[in-house]
Amino acid sequence: MTGAPTAGRTPGPAAVLCGLGGWLPPKVVTNEELVARLDTSDEWIRTRTGIRQRHVIEPGMSTGSLAVEAGARALKSAQQDSVGAVVLATTTPDRPCPATAPEVAARLGLAGVPAFDIGAVCAGFVYALATGAGLIATGTADDVLVIGADAYSTLLDPEDRTTGPIFGDGAGAVVLRRGEPDEPGALGGFDLGTDGHLSDLIEVPAGGSRQRGSGVPAGPRDHYFAMQGKQVFRHAVLRMTGSVHKAVGRAGWTVAGIDRLAAHQANSRILDALTDQLELPRERALSNIDRVGNTAAASVPLLLADSVNEGSLRAGHSVVLTSFGGGLAWGSTTLRWPQLDAV
């Protein structure tokens, strides 16, 4: 481990990561199963995305189902049966109204605690972490369950070979508790940003008040996810690179001192370009995209859980979390990895 100082953190209570869990729906869809339907090939998918399979929900399941499973595992990892708040990052809520988090909380036996959704697309989990840390800093809660969950299979155009192979469904969660800034697991300063001028690069055009209030009926594919891939690639690398530099600086670290980079698993080529821009050895970048695809808000916590279970993420590692998604939105934070087991 290269080691990194904890200078730059402000005195006072910190949000400390103390529990971690992830869950994937059992159904696996391999590249071979997509080939005939999408007029593509396994080689085309793997060389452009790094993905060979993904998990998808089955009838009777939803984003809420995924969130409950991951949340229960994070609570078990933290050896807790209650928390003071629940924050759910998702772009695929169970219903447009109400938020999904209150029902998730109730199903976890946490009825009565504040519970709400965060919508920042694939950057949502880092935004939810920042929100959970804020709840702890203000004394609103002593501990917070933060979940990232998405079921993007419900948004994909079944005939679009550019988006169809990329996304998978899943959920990951962490428990944050009140602690000290110099503790292992204490979250460092956050860097968050958006650029709404480019909001149409990643979108679902129909279903919201803009389309419904326009008086123009939605087109046959307007309810599906759409993305302008080339521009998204460029901005993802640019924004996450800048955000990592800012978060590392706020922690008093150097980029060279990063032991593990836990970046949103959007595309293997984006991950390679990001580590190259940061001048980090690629082996320091954690990855599970080949097995799960892009799971949107679930991406970062699922990556952390997989990496702990595989042994590639260990206590004492200096870790940077970074993500990028629609909005456009991006965010990063730092922590010294604590001793814990993922469930």
Automatic annotation (TrEMBL):
Keyword list, A-Z: Acyltransferase, Cytoplasm, Fatty acid biosynthesis, Fatty acid metabolism, Lipid biosynthesis, Lipid metabolism, Multifunctional enzyme, Transferase
GN (gene name): fabH
GO cellular component: cytoplasm
Gene3D superfamilies, per database record: 3.40.47.10
Annotated HAMAP family: FabH
Function description: Catalyzes the condensation reaction of fatty acid synthesis by the addition to an acyl acceptor of two carbons from malonyl-ACP. Catalyzes the first condensation reaction which initiates fatty acid synthesis and may therefore play a role in governing the total rate of fatty acid production. Possesses both acetoacetyl-ACP synthase and acetyl transacylase activities. Its substrate specificity determines the biosynthesis of branched-chain and/or straight-chain of fatty acids.
Official protein name in the record: Beta-ketoacyl-[acyl-carrier-protein] synthase III
Catalytic activity: malonyl-[ACP] + acetyl-CoA + H(+) = 3-oxobutanoyl-[ACP] + CO2 + CoA
The protein's assembly and partners: Homodimer.
Major localisation: cytoplasm
